[in-house]
Write a structure and sequence with these properties.
Chain lengths: ~170, ~525
């Protein structure tokens, strides 16, 4: 039975390698479906691009599959090295702050039009600072205050950008 | 327009108080971002891109040129002090810069780096100015089929030289072009993949795409644990440096005049070696003119040449100032070299020039060979701005040396939310649209996915920029040729571009095959 230190299984390795190529193919499929009823002149150029992109993606996928098999074969040949080099759980733990920041980013962009720029920023900056491990309250308050002041003076008053929720 | 006329017209645009102030501001911004590892000129230019819309096109490009120049130069400071290259181009500087710093010759190393950067930049720009005029003559022979082939050639070049996998590079470029096709068709005005969203009937906003790919993506990656340790290192260095000093010494240290004689010695050292500076600058221009090769490669080549030609090659890597000189002169000259394909063909030499192409596009100037014909004064103004920036680097760089290092002490937790907020405001400000903010966020995640999958990002940006131009020229060519594809290989110039694309692919295939054979045990 495979132990966790053996590294990812072949299926896991393939899934990781092929996720992005299939994402691109999926985007292409949606594009092709969406433009199915268009006149030839309108859909011709995207179809021309897709006609080149499909074989290129197939080559990419083929190479990824071969690379996954080759990597598995090398790991099988030198299991000690594989155990040293792969600590998947630690790698994923490193990415937790990035995942949290991504959620903050999506949330910030989503609520911005509803609650307005300044309240959204007033929540976003301390939220991200705390999420990333910044613990000085004086720092958090001064950074948030400074940013709000800069946005108000520079972007709202000086550049007169009609930011959401600002009149 | 001839070179001398071009220079004259460029100077007329450049020698205004606004432009000169923008150069100084750009240099300062460049210095700030250049010292932050992982954050460089394309990121800074991407964040400032929307705000540049309020400027005249030449002013916006002058600002970006100065940022580029400042960043290039600033990368040497953390390379010497902390052994962390602020930019990829400063990687070779660490080889001798750091040993010099450890041997107590920090200011000598910084003096050599500053002056070599300044002299190398000037020499590189003089070489660039002398070759760009003749190269632009090609633009006069370009019609729609050639324009389409130039776009495909640019994509092929970028795909083959950026990243490690040519197929992924090509796929990324084509993906960029396909994303650029999300808009109303230019002839029938039918919406393509717009989902009824009004904003998508126009071209994909380049600003949002660039902000997403370069700013959001970078911040999400920077948030990852252990990716950015400059703050702690800098605090330790700055802390050590100030211990036991008098207030006067601290002030002198803060303005970068801690050891003026050593700094001056460094300046004189470079000034007395014009041949070495010129040789490194030539390498920089040549490598810069090849899109996507990258500053790191050029600098290591320049370093290698300097080492081979040296009378004492054994001292390289142990604190030889010639190593710093070769790396820094080459790095600065490279900025000029990257402008050659950017301005004459519309093919960006690197990520910063890709953002500059986006700026051209935003200001209504179609990137491509016609830039040097229809907007020659702007093109020459950009080159001259780089030249003036190279000259100003010396005094401004000396004054800002120590504050630049203190920037490294800013914690990444503080930088990340601030940059995200400014980027979101920037993405919104171009069309006052939340859809653009959503597009920027989407591109941020697209960039992250591409990074995970090992796909390079520069081809995506190039595809987005060249997409509308390629589509326009593709459709016009078909109409001109009565829907016969033979129009694409009718002229000698078209044939040479097709031959160049095929040769490029063949060369890459052979190189990959040979590389695999030599890699086998």
């Amino acid at each position: 039975m495979a132990s966790p230190s053996d590294g990812p299984s072949l299926i896991q390795a393939l899934a990781a390698r092929l996720a992005v190529p299939f994402l691109i193919l999926g985007f292409m499929a949606v594009f092709a479906w969406e433009s199915r009823d268009l006149q030839f002149i309108a859909a011709g150029y995207p179809r021309f691009l897709m006609a080149i992109l499909v074989p290129v993606m197939l080559i990419v996928i083929l190479r990824e599959v071969l690379a996954a098999f080759r990597s598995k074969r090398d790991r099988d040949a030198a299991p000690a090295m594989a155990a040293e080099s792969s600590d998947g759980a630690a790698v994923w733990r490193d990415w937790i702050p990035s995942a949290a920041l991504s959620l903050w980013l999506i949330g910030f962009a989503a609520v911005l039009p509803q609650v307005g720029t300044l309240p959204a920023v007033a929540v976003f900056i301390p939220g991200v600072l705390i999420t990333l491990g910044y613990r000085s309250w004086v720092g958090i308050i001064s950074i948030t205050g400074g940013t709000l002041l800069t946005i108000y003076l520079l972007f709202i008053r000086l550049f007169q950008i009609p930011l959401p929720g600002v009149w | 327009m001839g070179t001398l006329e071009g220079i004259q017209a460029g100077l007329a645009l450049l020698l205004t108080p606004t432009s000169m102030l923008l150069i100084v501001a750009g240099l300062v911004v460049g210095f700030i971002v250049g010292v932050l590892p992982g954050f460089s000129s394309p990121n800074a230019a991407a964040i400032l891109l929307p705000f540049s819309l309020a400027m005249a096109p030449h002013d916006a490009l002058i600002l970006f040129a100065a940022i580029y120049s400042g960043t290039t130069f600033a990368g040497a400071v953390p390379a010497i002090l902390l052994n962390i290259p602020g930019t990829a181009g400063a990687a070779a500087t660490t080889l001798d810069g750091r040993p010099m710093a450890l041997a107590g010759k920090v200011d000598l190393a910084i003096g050599v780096a500053r002056s070599a950067s300044a002299f190398g930049g000037v020499v590189g720009l003089i070489i660039t100015l002398s070759i760009i005029g003749p190269m632009s003559l090609m633009a006069l022979r370009v019609g729609p089929p050639e324009l389409f082939l130039i776009a495909m050639f640019g994509l092929s070049v970028i795909a083959t030289v950026v990243g490690t996998d040519v197929w992924k590079g090509l796929a990324a470029g084509l993906l960029g072009m396909l994303i650029a096709a999300i808009s109303a068709d230019p002839i029938t005005a039918q919406g393509r993949m717009t989902f009824g969203i009004l904003e998508l009937y126009e071209d994909i906003p380049i600003v949002a795409a660039v902000i997403g790919l370069f700013a959001f993506n970078e911040m999400i990656q920077m948030a990852r644990r252990g990716t950015y340790s400059g703050d702690k290192l800098a605090r330790s260095v700055i802390g050590d440096g100030s211990a036991g000093q008098s207030s006067f010494d601290k002030v002198l240290g803060w303005v970068g005049l801690r050891n003026l004689p050593q700094l001056w010695e460094g300046v004189v050292y470079s000034a007395l070696r014009p041949f070495q500076v010129a040789r490194a600058a030539l390498v920089g221009v040549l490598f810069g003119a090849i899109p996507g090769v990258g500053a790191a490669v050029a600098n290591f080549v320049s370093y290698g040449i300097a080492k081979r030609r040296s009378r004492s090659p054994e001292t390289f890597g142990k604190g030889n100032p010639d190593g710093v000189l070769a790396s820094e002169s080459c790095d600065s000259a490279l900025a000029g070299g990257t402008m050659v394909p950017t301005l004459t063909l519309g093919i960006p030499g690197n990520a910063t020039t890709a953002v500059m192409l986006a700026a051209l596009y935003l200001h209504g100037i179609a990137p491509g060979p016609q830039v040097m014909v229809q907007n020659a004064p702007i093109a020459y103004a950009v080159l001259l701005a780089l030249l003036i920036s190279s000259v100003l680097i010396l005094p401004i760089g000396i004054l800002l040396a120590a504050p630049m290092t203190s920037i490294l002490a800013v914690r990444r937790e503080v930088l990340i939310p601030l940059i995200i907020v400014v980027s979101i405001i920037g993405a919104f400000a171009v069309r006052n649209s939340m859809v653009d903010v959503m597009i920027a966020v989407a591109f941020g995640f697209l960039g992250l996915a591409l990074k995970f999958g090992g796909f390079p990002m520069i081809p995506v940006i190039l595809g987005l920029i060249l997409g509308p131009m390629a589509e326009g020229s593709f459709v016009r060519s078909l109409m001109l040729g009565r829907y016969e594809l033979s129009i694409f290989w009718a002229s000698p110039l078209s044939k040479s571009f097709i031959a160049a694309i095929v040769a490029l692919m063949l060369f890459n295939a052979i190189q990959t095959y040979l590389g695999r054979r030599t890699a086998k045990p």
